[in-house]
Amino acid sequence: MGTADAVPGVSGGTIALIAGVYERLIGAITAITPQRFLTGVRSLIPVGEGFSIDRARRLLMTVDAGFLIALGTGVATAVVLVTRAVHFANANAPVVLYGVFFGLIAASAVVLLRSLPPESGREIAMGLVGVVIAAVLSGRSTPLSGDGLLVVFVAGAVSVSAMILPGVSGSLLLVILGQYERMVETLKSVMDGLASAVLDGASLPFDQIVVASVFILGGLTGLATISRVIQWALLRARRATLFFLIGLVVGALRAPIAELLGREAVSVSTTSVTAFLGSALVGAIVVLVLDHTAVDLDLAEV
User: Fold this and answer.
1) Is the dihedral of CA 105, 107, 110, 111 positive or negative?
2) I need a labelling partner for 274 at 20 to 30 A (CA). Which of 112, 193, 205, 222 fits?
3) What span, in angstroms and rounded, lies between the C-alpha atoms of 134 and 130?
């Protein structure tokens, strides 16, 4: 999920959906309420009711903390490690990079539709709505103007909340909002600054740390909001909601192509088309192998 979320055009939510952990993820996020958070903090502070490891442990089990910690650690590690590689490939081999993304998305759509065939016109209609929304969001738009902290907060809220929606790429929305390069450079500066501070005793890049912190705060706000909306929809119309989410995946097939066609340095030729299709095949094989060997997905019974 972290690798996907670091890449414009690919959604971490898609990975969660094909891996069969999507609804557990939504449930775990929505289980974290302000009241439970404050209860957890109080249980670790020796005031009031006093310090209580047992109470903190019970609370962590209630919110599925083990799952969230394992998943969050994997996502954060991948984002930190993959961002540099993706940034390099994005600048030097965009056709191959986005070809792989196209294959990942296309194969994901096939896997999801195979696991949950439509049974009614309503489900098909919801899927089509998802296709249209994702296709529209995959286009190009006017970037957010300015570079203040409010812009960073809004960009974080929009992009991070989108990261748990299958087919809607949070990184692509950052590109559309004109904030992707800035946030990649901010993350790079923070990591380099922390490393220099530890190894060489250099001063911390406080300005960049503030920007990253505001982005994360906006992201957590958006994540808490959209996850509750999704949970509400799943509880009331589960199959229709799943078809809407699958539709988002299908509609996102436009994203890699739109991104490439919007670049002056990329031209349509036999060589570029062949490279795109070949790398798309590689991406599709990765998903199909994952589905065959590691995932036993049955959305109808999850």
Assistant:
1) negative
2) 112
3) 6
Assigned domain for 209 exists = yes
Contact partners, residue 8, CB within 8 Å, separation at least 6? 90, 169, 171, 172, 174, 175, 180, 255, 259
Residue 301 in any domain: the answer is no
Closest to 252 measured CA to CA, from 141, 162, 181, 180:
162
User: So what's the pLDDT on residue 246?
Assistant: 83
Task: Report the domain count for the chain.
Answer: 1
Mutual angle of helices 149-162 and 206-236, in 10-degree steps: 40
Cα 212 to the center of its chain, rounded Å:
17
How far apart, in whole angstroms, are the C-alpha atoms of residue 22 and residue 1? 11
Q: What is the 3-state secondary structure (H, E, C) of 24-39?
A: HHHHHHHCCCHHHHHH
Backbone angles phi, psi at 263, to 5 degrees: -100, 130
Alpha carbon distance 112, 250 (integer Å): 10
Is residue 300 a part of any domain in this protein? no
Give the relative orientation of helices 206-236 and 22-30 as an angle to the nearest 10 degrees: 110
Local confidence band at 176 (pLDDT 50, 70, 90 cut-offs): low
Q: How far apart are CA 257 and CA 275, in angstroms?
A: 13
> Would 299 be classed as within a structural domain?
no
Instruction: Give the C-alpha separation, 161 to 155, whole Å.
Output: 10
For 81, the domain range is: 2-293
